[in-house]
């Protein structure tokens, strides 16, 4: 007997369904993107702060090189050559100067960070808002194939990468290179050119090893990021659908799915960390070999009398001042490369083009009458053979038209084309004689009001959810909309009234209450065209009757398009259009379609037959 797949496996999306390709260009392209971001008008007020922060950083690097020389001179004053008398007063003075310089060099980066912190946060905000707004602007098809958790994670990591790249490029890489050059030159001029050569060779070997190993680490990081995105998205997916999980007693199964996703992430995380340990070990080996060579040469120079004890001390302090920035350089390079990977993904998202866009010079739809016309419309979803084909109809202002048919007949597809969530492949969709492709999407959708089968609410108050349609609405307008949606008595009966929170996706409300909130929201928006997409199909008969009354109130005086499964809810429609396999097969009024004895009549009799047992039991 063949082994059956786990129930979830049958519907689980492929692992790469959240994938967003990274933008091209690598590190240098990422640097250019950062510079472009910092040049944005929104960040212009921070430019003096940026310049000051860089100056402070460079000054600190210079002081880091000077202070060991001053300290060495102080020791030479305390321990002079040839048996000369020690000058402790002068030594103490030079030592004080050296310590003051070291303190200033240590304090300056703190001052810089204090100044730069709001700059970094503002840059992250600008980039995050851009990415978030761009995500919302992407077409419906994009969001239907990607999980919210994965998208959030890409934006979060990309914003954090901006902070890394700005800080490390401006405050680590540049100043560190300046410090390394100054220290190498100072060693050669003040003491021995061979010390400079050893320092330069050590630095070169260190940088080469760091770059080579970091390139390997970047590949590990990319794999870890993909696993992290999948893991976070899986977590959000499970928690968002916890009601379904509980209803199928699938807690153990979903916990195992979470465990698998986290296990995959952990494996890549361990690989990434181990590559870091390899890099740290190689860096430490190179640095300590260089340190040993400099110490041996300096000690030999002291023995030969070409250097003093203070000079040896200065060289050692100088090496330590080199050792620290080299460690920072290696770490900063790792972070920069990893940040570039994250930024590539963010810019990959930003580079995605909406499938549906406003035309240049698109018109604003103002004061629409509500005349809707579909003219020989054809459209098919990607990967599906059936869509809609050759669909033509016209709805006069103030009239009601219903669309019925079996599941997959194309009813909801017509509504999506009306909202221009997709563009037609042939024909045209018109409002008041204007092709919707010639209108701005904002003005088009402002003229349409949708009540879907499952109204999804924000985790906010009842008042906030209803006023979402028109945030500037007055309290009187809100109450009138709630009254017309038969929701006002319910709201007034609640202890917190309009301030009652509805929970995640409105889960604290019943199905009927959620639908009435959706109806109140549409009434408040006052659109010219009302669209009802199976707005009562998920409700019981008693609740459906109450909600149907609210819908009749909402549709009064405006063009209404209804998609319905229960034919009893569309009897009053001026015209009923029957769809099958994406084509119109019948159209007419309820009585005329029944008399015709075709597809509609067959659907009506089958539904009436199914309703009889329920009526007998009621």
TrEMBL record:
Highest taxon in the source lineage: Bacteria
A GO molecular-function descriptor: ATP binding
Keywords: ATP-binding, Membrane, Nucleotide-binding, Transmembrane, Transmembrane helix, Transport
CDD domains, per database record: ABC_6TM_ATM1_ABCB7
Domain ABC transmembrane type-1: 51-338
Subcellular location: Cell membrane
Residues passing through the membrane, by range: 49-71, 83-105, 164-189, 195-214, 277-300, 312-333
Membrane topology: Multi-pass membrane protein
Cross-referenced Gene3D superfamilies: ABC transporter type 1, transmembrane domain, P-loop containing nucleotide triphosphate hydrolases
InterPro entries from the UniProt entry: AAA+_ATPase, ABC1_TM_dom, ABC1_TM_sf, ABC_transporter-like_ATP-bd, ABC_transporter-like_CS, P-loop_NTPase, Type_1_exporter
Record domain ABC transporter: where: 372-606
Keyword Transport: yes
Entries under Pfam families matching the protein: ABC_membrane (PF00664), ABC_tran (PF00005)
GO cellular component, one term: plasma membrane
Entry protein name: Heavy metal ABC transporter permease/ATP-binding protein
Lineage: Bacteria, Pseudomonadati, Pseudomonadota, Alphaproteobacteria, Hyphomonadales
